[in-house]
Amino acid sequence: MPIYEYICQDCNQEFEWLSRADEQPVCPSCGKSQLSKKFSVPAAHTSGSPEMPCRETGTCNPGNCCGQGCNLPGMM
Length: 76
Description:
The protein is mainly β. Helix content is 0%, strand content 18%. The protein has strands at residues 3-8, 14-18, 35-37.
């Protein structure tokens, strides 16, 4: 079920609406149905954790190793 974002044309309330079948959204603030859909960015969910970028720049320092495979002996 998609979630849409709306703005009420009567009271300017912004809200989200979980769309189910043929239900028509109404403003939770004033109860009216004069609404405009907002443009929104869809959410994309991925599994796993994002890779952390190495915080070391230039030459690798064993005291600050981030574990990103720099091939220093004893770091992995």
